[in-house]
Write a structure and sequence with these properties.
The protein is of the alpha/beta class. Helix content is about 35%, strand content about 25%. This is Putative oxidoreductase YhhX.
Length: about 350
């Protein structure tokens, strides 16, 4: 059993408290931290959290509990200082994505975790779904031969779907696309080397910053990814993980994941299309701990057994996904100029 505290009980943090943490039986909660009394009162009143387990500061929680894991579910700009303090206090840390705002901050936290002998994990929850797990396995096995092109589409219309973060900087690339960028690395089992990206803000958009973009991303083994995504698309809604078409020398793997839209929840899907054949659906294995429960269970497993489970996104590994975010933002700011990932990582 892993004893844990949660830091950040706001809108998303409340969802963790209610929908995620109770579903992972190997995690025992011994503390909840938030400086906002309204957020604290909400978990107490609506979820029945014992007031004795609620603290207004990390130091207070550290002094009164024996937790070894800190679950950080705060706004992005608070990740770096809070995670740094957690590591300094000797906690293992699971933090929401993106785990820092800059590569330099990310590298500092990775180095601090190593120096402290602690585990730092980023909650890349899209990895813990049946379709990307199956797709990653198929690619690793060489299904349909070497990949040459991957096409990914993400379409949502924010104004009609309850989106509310209109003033968020880089609402597409930093907040949404990081999921897709991380899945690229996870499914391909490869690392990007360079990319070009353009973004824009359509007429009549309520977004302050660009909600739409396209990117061409080249990976080390030669695979080219064509990525198109928008929060202002009036076409058919895609699943949250997007619609993927992965072209190999001998056929195509098509898949989609996290098909949640309003009152519709559809299953993950994978289809195999051999050359001159017909599409054949692939039966997917169920995932015992899907989505965010998967990241928390993976962290608990790593701490209890010392074995890093499949799909584990360490802070060090996640620097590659963060680099894709920073590189696409940089490229877009220069009108689509090609950016080498190595230059962003330095």
């Amino acid at each position: 059993m892993v004893k844990a505290i949660q830091i950040g009980l706001g809108h998303w943090g409340f969802s963790w408290t209610r929908d995620v943490i109770p579903k992972v039986p190997t995690v025992e909660m011994v503390g909840y931290v938030d400086t906002n009394p309204e957020a604290t009162a909400r978990v107490q009143n609506e979820l029945g959290i014992d007031p004795k387990l609620c603290f207004t500061s990390l130091e207070d929680a550290a002094h009164h509990t024996d937790a070894t894991l800190a679950i950080c579910t705060l706004r992005t700009e608070a990740h770096y200082p809070v995670v740094k303090r957690c590591l300094e206090l000797g906690y293992n840390v699971l933090v929401e994505k993106p785990f820092t705002s800059t590569i330099a901050q990310g590298k500092e936290l990775v180095a601090l975790a190593k120096a402290q002998g602690r585990v730092l994990m980023v909650s890349q929850n899209y990895r813990h779904q049946p379709a990307p797990i199956a797709a990653a396995r198929l690619i690793a096995e060489g299904k349909f031969g070497a990949l040459n092109m991957v096409s990914i589409d993400f379409r949502r219309h924010g104004p009609s779907q309850g989106y509310r973060y209109w003033d968020m900087p880089d609402p597409l690339l930093a907040d949404m696309s990081i999921h897709h960028f991380d899945l690229m690395r996870f499914v391909l089992g490869d690392e990007p080397v360079r990319l070009s990206c353009r973004t824009w803000n359509p007429p009549g958009s309520p977004f302050r910053y660009d909600p739409s973009g396209v990117a061409t991303i080249e990976f080390a083994r030669g695979t080219i990814v064509s990525y198109r995504a928008s929060w202002m698309n009036s076409g058919p809604v895609t699943p949250w993980a997007g619609e993927w078409a992965m072209d190999g020398a001998e056929g195509q793997i098509a898949w989609s994941s996290r098909d949640h839209f309003r009152d519709r929840t559809g299953p993950d899907q994978v289809s195999l299309l051999a050359l001159d054949g017909k599409p054949e659906p692939l039966k997917l294995d169920p995932v015992a701990f899907p989505d965010r429960t998967g990241t928390l269970n993976a962290m608990a497993t790593a701490l209890e057994t010392g074995i890093i489970p499949p799909g584990f996104s360490s802070g060090e590994d996640n620097l590659g996904s963060l680099a894709l975010v920073r590189a696409t933002i940089l490229s877009a700011s220069h009108g689509g100029d090609w950016v080498d990932i190595a230059d962003v990582m330095h």
